[in-house]
Amino acid sequence: MSRTFALPLVLLAGLAFGLPTSVHAAKQKPWTFAIASAADFEAQAAEVRKQMEPEGRFGTISADERTAVEADLDRISSLLGEKGTPARLNDQQQVEMANAQERINAILTGNDGDRLICKFEPRTGKLVWYYQHNRNDQYDLDWVFDRTVGTLDIDGKPRRVVITGGKSGLFDTLDAATGKYLDTYDMGIQDYIDRIDPKTGDKHVRPEKIPGRDKGPVFMCPHGGGGRNWSPTSLNPQSSVFFVNARDVCTDLTPASGVGFLSTGVNAVYAPPPNGDGNYGVLQAIDLENGKLLWEVRRRQTPDMGILTTAGGLLFTGWMDRQFVAYDQKTGKQLWTTGVSGVPNASAITYSIDGKQYVAMVTGAGNPLSSGIPDVIPETQMPPVNSSTIYVFALPRD
Predict the structure, then answer these.
(1) Which domains can be identified in the chain, with CATH numbers?
(2) Cis preceding-peptide flag for 122 (omega within 30 of 0)
(3) Which of 18, 79, 268, 298 is the most exposed place for a label (fewest CB within 10 A)?
């Protein structure tokens, strides 16, 4: 089967904020609170409750979401009941009220923390379709990384698809022409999504994993730094095998005394996964035709650069212990490794001159995958001097 990977249209990813108005066509307009006094708020809270009834503007939200809105309405009511007006709240209380309003608006409109992919016609800028990978993200688990476009056999027919994964290690496959959801692959490094709608790809968050200033500590995986992060994946178009690396690290979300993380009112720190074996680095090969894991490599150290695959069956990537490594694409067997002066970064490239093939890579800590790891791997410290170096290696002709 022929597989091509040219990108005919522009694919963009990001938060819902700032995207064209048409992206929000299926969403509700934001709910605006105008609060001058406790009495003003109680009147507006009564209207919100009315609109959450089945026949109301927000009547389609779930029971769990309705409960969350009620809790935040009560939280604001309690704050204003003590002080009477927002102007009399101290800084901490004003932050609490603002965060509660933001959470209410996020639930009622579905606009806060949305992780979207949008497809545009490059000549006209017309929005062709958009897809929401994860709504109301409260963990900083972005879905803004590389998009792989190719052709897969689906139900016996070749189909153009776009594949992309978030920090959570979940990879969605969509129809490239329409944006229709097709499937999700889970790397197995997250524990906060407990089910995915097989038709829409809508992801359900475990209620006990939802953080908040009033909920006590929450332990969840992965950490907001990923999981996977900026490091590009790689797809072998001949075999339809997809390669990705990630960090198997978790986080403790604890109530903050100050503003806290995002709109949650909590702080996030790195933590090892439960029942882990001390190997935090993950490299996987996935057969996209059937969604099966072909092999996995685990290392004590975590990856800090993307993946390069070659037509000759090699795979190159680098790790936080300053090792640049070559693997066999078919088996995951390590074929070669070399130490470098700094932390491997970006992605390696390959090129040839006069028939001889070379692989080049750079070092220099600085991307998000360099951060936080000393918290869980004490022996992995950042270089005292963060210098950058270009390395070039020649591959043997045979």
Answers:
(1) 1-16+114-296 (2.40.10.480), 28-109 (1.20.1270), 301-398 (2.40.128)
(2) no
(3) 18
